[in-house]
Design brief:
Layout lengths: L3 H11 L3 E3 L11 E3 L1 H20 L4 E3 L8 H7 L1 H4 L1 E6 L6 E3 H12 L25 E4 L2 E4 L9 E4 L4 H5 L2 H7 L6 E10 L14 E11 L4 H18 L7 E5 L11 E8 L7 E11 L1 H10 L5 E3 L4 E3 L2 E8 H12 E7 L5 E7 L10 E5 L6 H12 L5 E3 L5 H10 L4 E5 L1 H6 L1 E6 L5 E5 L3 H8 L3
Parallel strand pairs: 3-9, 19-20, 19-21
Antiparallel strand pairs: 1-2, 4-5, 4-6, 7-8, 9-10, 10-16, 11-12, 12-13, 13-16, 14-15, 17-18, 21-22, 22-23
Helix pairs in contact: 2-10, 3-9
The structure holds adenosine-5'-triphosphate (ATP).
Length: 458
Amino acid sequence: APSRLDNAISLAKRRGFVFPCGEIYGGTRSAWDYGPLGVELKENIKRQWWRAMVTSRDDIVGLDSSVILPPQVWEASGHIAAFVDPLVECLSCHKRYREDHLLEEFEEKKGRAPEGGLAEIACAACGSRGQWTEPKMFNGLLRTYLGAASDESGLHYLRPETAQGIFINFENVMRTARQKPPFGIAQVGKSFRNEITPGNFIFRTREFEQMEMEFFVVPGTDEEWHQHWIQTRKDWYTDLGISEDNLRLYEHPQEKLSHYSKGTTDIEYRFGFQGSEWGELEGIANRTDFDLSTHAKHSGKDLSYLDPATNERFVPYVIEPAAGLSRSLMAFLVEAYTEEEVPTAKGGTETRTVLRLDHRLAPVKAAVLPLSKSADLVPTAESLAKELRGAWNIDVDVTQSIGKRYRRQDEVGTPYCITIDFDTLDDQAVTIRDRDTMQQERVALSQVSGYLAQRLIG
Ligand code: ATP
């Protein structure tokens, strides 16, 4: 039977959350486009993150830096030298894998590390066991060439993380926003990595969106802040409806830390992938003063902070919660996907599919449904929709039976369906149906907006 993950992915495709990129040309399996519902969901996640991380706080400000930065940035950050993964190729079918992914997957599946290393591991594509090339280091930066000369002098990189745009603006932001440590700079935007094995739907793509925040702290307070941010970020997911049972923390062993990190803890979600069920949603790293120090050294600009209170100068340490927007969208979809048995009008039961998305994330907040296409119901529906659109994304659906229309809205997570029926013309009232309880209430037309405002918070 298809898993919840399979069902959620097929719903996402069928209802236009996500389309394969270049579908009319056969599609690629590694890039995806967000359709009308997907883009709303994505915007809502982004908005919630921005609210939680920036506008609801006085100690974090926003930034939108360039995708293409001066190449010296990547030299200084260590990405040109160290943003590399070990690649191996199957000698039989030539499929390529990241060696670290093969080893991790084996361990997750069998509960032990492969003693014989790769010799124990079979190729997922052709099944041949232990037939691997030696690992070769591969740099994940995406290259592009700027200017008229398409030679090495024009070589630039698309950012593999948004973080470096923040570090190189540290002084600009601190000065103009009149902030001092502890304070943070947040950014949402596209990042690019030349992933060798993109896959698992939108989980791993070469072009993706990140939501990152760099929090600058006084050295010595870094570990406490690290713990604070791990907890705060985990709470963000549960507050938006991800169940505690489907989240876990994974602390990176010291020997596997990135070149800039003193400690990293990932927040993982139980996606239910074949093989290893869990996938990383977000990494929370203690980047120490690595980035500011290295940029100070390479640029010759002083990036330290002089504390006027103590007259002490220091380079702040950085705690970084780095989340994937596309990955969290996938997690919210999988988590919300529910099938349940509900009673039918004829006294039997049927299965309904409902996306139990948090109201704040739901792409469409309410649907206005005139019971019949005929008569005078449609103009009333249109004028109500027009009023509500001042505040929310509203759908008007006039085709097919009312039952089918409810199911269509349930399936995409619309919290409220507002039915205009023949009585509406007499009593100036409508029926509002709640997605989760399926309870209906009669509400005066003039009160609909207030009714929704009370229930659609955030
Ligand atoms: P992975 O181990 O899965 O490759 P990572 O540890 O390299 O990820 P980070 O560098 O910590 O990832 O990036 C922060 C976040 O950005 C990740 O937690 C993830 O949500 C997101 N992310 C990273 N790479 C991709 C990708 N190729 N596609 C989609 N999201 C990504």
